[in-house]
């Protein structure tokens, strides 16, 4: 019974997460149009290149849910961090510090978001399992981290 309620919670949490990803994809398309690509090919390349991380995150969510790996809360936190990173690069390059080289910064956005996805995703999975472990050993040096400074 508890497994059914957790799966329902996972499904309910996945819907807003996918909506967030769809919203970010729409904002990404808006930012690409705002950059005014010089050709249809440049527009197509930018769309594919900049949307790949978000499609990968959605696919990862479906794979993890299918394998039965708990998605809450770390998956939502990771997706929010990755989307905030990508959107902040767009906002910085287009609105906050516009520059002739801003499109170059936009091209590097997936290269900035994917490592964060991998880093935060792995941290979330390790942290989730590490929180279950309980240390049975007593604290070293009475709980003081550096005994050299204690006299």
UniProtKB/TrEMBL annotation:
| Species | Nitrosomonas ureae
Question: What's the protein called, per UniProt?
Answer: Uncharacterized protein
Supply the alphabetized keyword list. Membrane, Transmembrane, Transmembrane helix
| TM ranges | 12-33, 39-64, 71-96, 102-118
């Amino acid at each position: 019974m508890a497994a059914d309620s957790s799966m329902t919670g996972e499904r309910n949490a996945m819907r807003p997460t996918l909506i967030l990803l769809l919203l970010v994809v729409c904002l990404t398309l808006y930012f690409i149009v705002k950059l005014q690509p010089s050709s249809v090919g440049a527009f197509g390349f930018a769309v594919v290149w900049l949307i790949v991380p978000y499609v990968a995150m959605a696919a990862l969510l479906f794979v993890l849910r299918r394998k039965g790996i708990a998605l809450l809360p770390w998956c939502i936190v990771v997706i929010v961090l990755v989307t905030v990173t990508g959107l902040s690069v767009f906002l910085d390059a287009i609105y906050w510090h516009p520059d002739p080289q801003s499109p170059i910064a936009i091209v590097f956005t997936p290269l900035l978001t994917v490592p964060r996805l991998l880093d935060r995703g792995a941290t979330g999975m390790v942290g989730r399992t590490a929180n279950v472990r309980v240390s049975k050993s007593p604290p070293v040096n009475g709980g003081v981290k550096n005994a050299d400074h204690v006299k």
